[in-house]
Specification:
heterodimer, A: 115 residues, mainly beta, 7-stranded mixed sheet, B: 113 residues, 6-stranded mixed sheet, 5-stranded antiparallel sheet, globular
């Protein structure tokens, strides 16, 4: 079992729906990440929060909206997604913010399908 | 210059054999090199990582070899087992780079009985 928990595991939504993905970690980590992964491809970084502040946005379309309510929780709000947004969305965390290189621990992801 | 090139794309190894996956990079500012293992339906799991002041690191059956002058690093899986069948990603990041990982394209490993 991973220590980064993502819910839901699967999500099917229409292009006009609004939904949210949730990520929790209780390891006391201070940086949290959202990645998008297409089949047979490596993860692509979307957002990074360090000490609950958005530190990196990799030019992600505004239909994806991240939120970090506290140091243990990370949300990704979805609205008006496109079929090409169907992918595995991964959350990760690392211990000490982003000022140094350190291991990232991934959750098992949310498999998102856009109809 | 930010790319990490990974080879082979896929690999079939007999049980008990050695699996070798190679990565090469151009950016000399990279200073952290982790390997991730990903099973179908699961997230990537950190396997082993190395920094450029070390030429080799071993953890159990997994060894990273690092050649700074050649800008290459590789993962060796000794005594490969069917349970090792997974996709392996090498990655690299730079100090002060926001802990952003540049991933290789992945290697699909199958270990046959």
């Amino acid at each position: 079992d991973t220590e980064v928990t993502q819910t839901p595991k699967h999500l099917v939504m229409g292009m006009t729906n609004k939904k949210s993905l949730k990520c929790e970690q209780h390891m006391g980590h201070r940086a949290m990440y959202w990645y998008k992964q297409k089949a047979k491809k490596p993860p692509e970084l979307m957002f990074v929060y360090s000490y609950e502040k958005l530190s990196i946005n990799e030019s992600v379309p505004s239909r994806f909206s991240p939120e970090c309510p506290n140091s243990s929780l990370l949300n990704l709000h979805l609205h008006a997604l496109q079929p090409e947004d169907s992918a595995l969305y991964l959350c990760a965390s690392s211990p000490w913010g982003i000022s140094s290189n350190q291991p990232q621990h991934f959750g098992d992801g949310t498999r998102l399908s856009i109809l | 210059q930010q790319q990490v090139k990974q080879s082979p794309q896929s690999l079939i190894v007999q049980k008990g054999g050695i699996s070798i996956i190679n990565c090469a990079y151009e950016n000399t500012a990279f200073d952290y090199f982790p390997w991730y293992q990903q099973f179908p339906g699961k997230g990537p799991a950190l396997l082993i990582a190395i920094r450029p002041d070390v030429s080799e690191k071993k953890e159990g059956r997994f060894t990273i070899s690092f050649n700074k002058s050649a800008k290459q690093f590789s993962l060796h899986i000794m005594d490969s087992q069917p349970g090792d069948s997974a996709t392996y990603f090498c990655a690299a990041s730079t100090a002060g780079g926001g802990n952003k990982l540049t991933f290789g394209t992945g290697t699909q490993l199958k270990v046959e009985l």
